[in-house]
Amino acid sequence: MADVKITYYLEILSSWCSYAESVWADLQRTYAGRVDFEWKIALMHRSDFPVSREQCDWFYRRSGLIMRTPAMLNSGWFQAERNGDYEAPDLVAEAARSLGRADDGPRLALAKAALGEGRPVGDMAVAVAVVAKPFKLDPRKLRRAAESKAVRDRVHATTAEFRSHQISQRPAFVLTDAIGDTAVFSGLVKPEPLRATIDNMLDDCAAYRAHAVHFGPPPHA
Fold first, then answer.
1. Residue 219 clears pLDDT 80, i.e. is over it
2. d(CA 11, CA 27)
3. Is residue 221 in some structural domain?
4. Tally of domains in the chain
5. Residue 51 — very low, low, confident or very high, per pLDDT cuts 50/70/90?
6. Which of 101, 134, 212, 221 allows an S-S link to 96, with CB 3.0 to 4.6 Å?
7. pLDDT, tens digit, for every residue of 108-132?
8. Within a domain: residue 220?
9. Nearest to 3 by CA among 214, 176, 215
10. What is the CATH number of the domain that holds 188?
């Protein structure tokens, strides 16, 4: 176990999570072997989704301008008839994990298909097709897993865990360390606060180890 662990709570169709992915990848490269990384699904409420493509595009223009992105996200995934029911891509990402693909690949493929290509991944068949072939997963097994009670329960459990931190914005990052410190970031998509916190936690843990070498456990009264 590393001294520091960072848990990334995300929703596949969150535009802000898509902007944070480069930060997540950079942190994994920078702190490889020193920090444990884990991602967990944190479903959005149905009411959190846009009610029209026009509204979705408005949000994408705002966030794209804030982030200075060279291309606008694609709202083609939006389906008015779904009434905010877009759990399929999250269930498929979690199902892929249960079938041995716990890495970022399947969920990034789903996000790219939706936000980059405008594919309607809210449909289970589409979400399964996005992941199955590229990651060499049996589409029937993947769909069965995605529609299983076990996978749905896990996704709802990690969503409840996300909400237990009394936060509502994704991406969210919860950092913990070996000496019991915790830091929670909700809605941030810039790397500097995360790097500073990780560095501070690693330094504190190293200091505690050095102290233990020199002084041992605390004396008993």
1. yes
2. 19
3. no
4. 1
5. very high
6. 101
7. 999 999 999 999 999 999 999 999 9
8. no
9. 176
10. 3.40.30.10
Residue recorded with tokens 């979705």: 56
Residue pointed to by tokens 């794209």: 64
Judge residue 36's burial from the number of C-beta atoms within 10 Å of its C-beta, 0-12 exposed, 13-18 middle, 19 or more buried.
middle
Would you say residue 137 lies in a domain?
yes
Distance CA(44)–CA(84), nearest Å, equals: 9
Which whole-number Å values give the CA distances from 20 to 27, 46, 91, 126, in the listed order? 11, 22, 21, 24
Q: Give the residue from 179, 190, 182 showing the smallest Cα distance to 166.
A: 182
Domain of residue 107, residue span = 4-215
Domain membership of residue 205 (yes or no) is yes
82-109 pLDDT tens trace = 999 999 999 999 999 999 999 999 999 9
Q: Could you give the 3-state DSSP secondary structure of residue 177?
A: strand
At 58, the amino acid letter reads W
pTM, rounded to two decimals: 0.95
- Give the type of residue at 24: W
